[in-house]
Amino acid sequence: MTLNEHKKHLKLARPASGVYGRNEWSIVGGPCTVIKLLAHDVIGALSPVYKCAYADTSHNDDITMVPGRLTNGAMLDYTDQINYQQYNFQNPVFPYQLKQNFANADLVLVNGNHQQAKAQVVIIDLNKRASLLKRLEQLTNVQLFLLADNVDEIFDFIQEAIPNWQQIPVYRLSDRERIIGFFESNLKLSRPVLNGLVLAGGKSLRMGFDKGNVNWYGKPQRYYMADMLKSFCNEVFISVRQGQQSEIDPKYAALEDTFTGLGPFGAILSAFREKPDNAWLIVACDLPLMDEATLRNLVAWRNSSSTATAYHSPVTNFPEPLIAIWEPKSYPILLSFLAQGYSCPRKVLINTDINLLNAPDPDALTNVNTPEELEQIKRVIHQKTAAN
To answer: What is the CATH number of domain 24-58+67-189?
Structure first.
């Protein structure tokens, strides 16, 4: 096999992840104790709102004892420590496994004296000058300088190595409030863009005709829902099954299922496959009572730190997956469920950390699957129209 033959794989959109996650910074240039204390303070301040993580390397000078059953050859040792969960691995963790383990984190701080990350916070400490000089190659994306008490300016070799060093903010290492504010501001700015997806690729077998074409309000429902989503989303797409795209009005963007035969689960996965760094406001096309107030409430209470933001369904007593905001961190979770033989989006919401809301008008969640339900909703819409 030649190198060119090996490059024939399908090119996929990759999430904008670093070594561990989307938002990661290594803290480099200070003593490890100082780095640990700084990470401790930042995580303590931000963890009530954001899911934070930390990565480091053991500082034991002696050989670290292998814990638990790993001594007898176990490849994994799991212990429920009641207040926390502990996993010990025998073998080295591969890069893709690191990304999986940190996928749910909003913020990852890394001890840059031992590990690397895609962005860096550099401590300027006179006592660690020589050590920092050895790590110049790690400084690929410096976003903040922190001056220790024993210095008043950036080292000359840093100025030479980083052309734009004067545009990078400089704080005192002791100014914890400003440092915490730096990370908080960056997390707010990195909130995933919200796109909309109208699920219209089903075969409507129980209805007997395409539910997306039902005209409730002067146009086919799939277009009515897409137009409603435009006020809340960056881009709006209509999800279609393979071969259905030609049926969609060219004024509307269609997104064809690439995970076929999985219904809504496949449509959600297909959306993330297209744009893995975006959040997706998913709305089924068979919700004729859905209104802007219900969507506005969902978007207003969106928690991008959760896997998803969804409404509680008074009918099923479970989260409603087809009027919900799915965050990018749900993509690997959905794939994991699929790998275990599950293709129910509701199961994903039930078994993950979500932001669950009560709908301001529960009737807005009503879906229509049969001709009998269609006639009932027609009467409800007629009554509402007459009342107005």
So the answer is: 3.40.50.300
Contact 193, 325 (CB under 8 A): no
pTM (predicted TM-score): 0.91
Q: Where are the beta strands (DSSP E) in the chain?
A: 24-28, 52-55, 76-80, 85-89, 107-111, 119-124, 142-147, 170-172, 194-199, 236-240, 253-256, 279-284, 308-312, 319-326, 355-358
Residue 265 to residue 282: CA distance in whole angstroms: 11
Residue 120 amino acid letter: Q
Task: Check: CB of residue 354 under 8 Å from CB of residue 307.
Answer: yes
Question: What is the average pLDDT across 307-332?
Answer: 96
**What pLDDT band is residue 209 in, cutting at 50, 70 and 90?**
very low
CATH superfamily of 194-387: Spore Coat Polysaccharide Biosynthesis Protein SpsA; Chain A (3.90.550.10)
* Host H or E run for residue 233: none
Mention every residue, 6+ apart, whose C-beta is less than 8 A from residue 234. Answer: 193, 194, 195, 278
Cα separation, 368 vs 388, whole angstroms: 23
Q: What is the pLDDT of residue 71?
A: 85
Can you give the residue ranges of every domain in the chain? 24-58+67-189, 194-387
pLDDT tens, position by position, 120-147: 999 999 999 999 999 999 999 999 999 9
Question: In 10 A of CB 67, how many CB atoms?
Answer: 11
DSSP 312: E
Q: Regarding beta strands 119-124 and 142-147, do their DSSP bridges make them parallel or antiparallel, or are they unpaired?
A: parallel
